[in-house]
Amino acid sequence: MSAQFTGTGGQNPDARPAFQAVDATVAYDGTPVLDGVSLDVPAGQTLAVLGPNGSGKSTLMRAVLGIVPLNAGEILLHGTPLRRFRDWRRIGYVPQRLTAGGAVPATVREIVASGQVAARRRLSLPSRKDRQAVDEALQAVGLEDRSDDSVRELSGGQQQRVLIARALAGRPDTFVMDEPMAGVDAENQQALAATITMLGEQGSTVVLVLHELGPLEHVIQRAVSLDQGRIVHDGVPLRPTGECARPGHEHQHPHPDPNAPAPRDANGEIIRLEVPGSD
Ligand SMILES: Nc1ncnc2c1ncn2[C@@H]1O[C@H](COP(=O)(O)OP(=O)(O)OP(=O)(O)O)[C@@H](O)[C@H]1O
After folding, report:
1. Which of 2, 60, 183, 230 is most buried as measured by Cβ atoms within 10 A of its Cβ?
2. Nearest atom (ligand 1) to Cα of 61
3. Complex ipTM > 0.90
4. Which ranges carry the ABC transporter domain (predicted)?
5. What pLDDT, on a 0 to 100 scale, did the predictor assign at position 129?
């Protein structure tokens, strides 16, 4: 594997935390969904954010990335207050998988290459190094043989791997992945777990929203559980107990079933993969 994905933080014990939330509060219509959350994520750590549906996991991820404004508190990225942070090329965001947003049809390679736009100098064309980074990102997620296919031809799990390759192609060292395993079949989960393991081993910071640790159990160093917008556990990952420990237990989840047919719009067209931030 190339050294290009190597994070800097994991090798430097003096590095400032990748993410810091200080008493972060977010309310929608007056109802707090993040209720004074304080959290430091050291550079180089692989951390899972767990919790029941609606507990505020996605809101916390969006808040640390500045997508959702805080009502109170503060966020720092790599030691810099969010409002002054400019080094967005360091951050790779893997959003939840499918939306009905208006993306254009695109090949796998085009989607992955779109992850480099923020990192390239304005108006410059992709360099040989950029193209090489796309090749390596595709290789990292095991999709190099699908690079010229339309993303619409891929399964949901493969599309999720495309989104991760897209984040890798920008060469960040800090990743936020919102439910990368949701609606992904077992084979693609294993492929994703291998990629995330590689990132952790190479010193990147990886923050993942998960419903269960599953195939990532061996790579998660720390788990933070939210409930009703507050941190109720922070430490070694808790093993599931009771009903959740039962073999075959299925978390109640609003995301698509991996075996369900591809979602279609009112005209019968398959809903396309959104390409956020590809401007
Ligand atoms: N844009 C919004 N406007 C109003 N309410 C919102 C908005 N986004 C989220 N919420 C509400 O905030 C609460 C927390 O939502 P959030 O998506 O952060 O939870 P979550 O833990 O990620 O849930 P899930 O596991 O279902 O993805 C929920 O009650 C949700 O309905």
Report:
1. 60
2. 18
3. yes
4. 19-253
5. 81
